[in-house]
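Quick start: what a row looks like.
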Amino acid sequence: MNYYIEITARLMLACVLGGMIGYEREHGNRPAGFRTHILVCVGAALVMVTSEFIFNKFSEFTNMDPARLGAQVISGIGFLGAGTIVRQGFNVKGLTTAASLWAVSCVGLAAGIGFYEGAVIATILIYITLIALKKMENQIAVKKQYRNIIIEIDNMPKMIYKLTDIFSGYDVLIKNIEYFNGENEDKMLIKFFIKPPHTFKLEDFTKIK
């Protein structure tokens, strides 16, 4: 009976720890969110529980490596992480989410084998990285004089090229571009993350026709 309680505790811990990381990703509207991280973490934990079960049951009859199944999780999670990486124009999204999925799978492996201390400490560090260090990144961006500019334009393919041409004419470094639907169907919002020179003026956008 104690064995089943131990297994349940491992899987439940993996569910909670994976959910903590997944909640942060879900809150940020990332491709892989709450449920995905829980499934990855619990699945990885189950792999380690299964590996331990197989080792205990068949170790007397054959030599086997109990870490072999866990190693396949580490390599296999790369395919799932790659699915979260999306390129939109100048912007590449999903790298942090892909890394969090890989890290969560490692947390699941630790919880599954009964290494509770390592799983909990790693989860805390991952959570701090995703929350606190994101603010630090934003502060670094501000020190580099990066600015966010949101512009409403007609929903026409050529308009975005006119905007980027104006930026290029004033030696504006475009760090990131995001697209949003406007209030009307014929309008769209463009969010630029740029580093403008001192000579750049927003009034120059009135040249767009």
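That is the whole record. Helices lie at 2-27, 34-58, 68-82, 95-113, 116-143, 157-169. Residues 75 and 178 are 32 Å apart (CA to CA).
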